[in-house]
Amino acid sequence: PIEPEDLWQALLKWIKPHPAPVAVAASAAPAAADGELPTGIDHLDMAAGLRRVLGKKALYRSLLGMFVAGQKSAALDLRLALAQQDWERAERIAHTLKGVCASIGATTLQRLAGTIEAAMHARQPIDDQIDDLQRQLEWLVLQLEDKLAPVLGQQAVTVDRQQLKAVCDTLQALLVNDDSEAGDVLDANADLLHSAFGQHYGLIESGIRSFNFDTALA
Questions:
Q1: What averages of pLDDT result for each successive group of 10 residues across the chain (218 residues)?
Q2: How far apart (Å, rounded) are the C-alpha atoms in residues 89 and 7?
Q3: First CA to last CA distance, the chain
């Protein structure tokens, strides 16, 4: 995961700064509310997760949704890879899970995934740790699904075709460029998109939250 302060220090070391641009007056329009975050989730250090996204609650909430969509089946995928003796894929699954857990602040799962990644690299099966990983992952996903549902739930709205076209044009441009800001656009316009696309909305949302932008674009 990116540690913002380390990133800034690296940029300051290697990039020669240009003169500061003339300040532009801030808009008088109020900023969009960040919304609420789920609380009381076991083994989730939300302070660490928020630090890595510079305190942007909407972005962090989006990352939590992407974690559920993209890593829900990680333990089962890991078992399948091992059953097929595909050690490289098993190592990659554990490595991805470790990184995503670190990004959201799931530190216990992060450490466990790191242990499994090292074991996969050494070609050493460790069934007990995988069992533990599956239990902890399922419990975290269950909590997030329960807590995020009322926060991210959609309501039926009247579809404004002009507004829908503008949102879709923006979303399409972001997806074509593999831009993760698509998640922010999705969250900001979830009710409109759900009302417009109906049953197809689930495929769009799942694609964006799992970073499968080609699927969402299609």
A1: 85 81 40 64 93 86 86 94 95 96 95 97 93 96 85 66 93 92 87 87 82 87
A2: 29
A3: 29
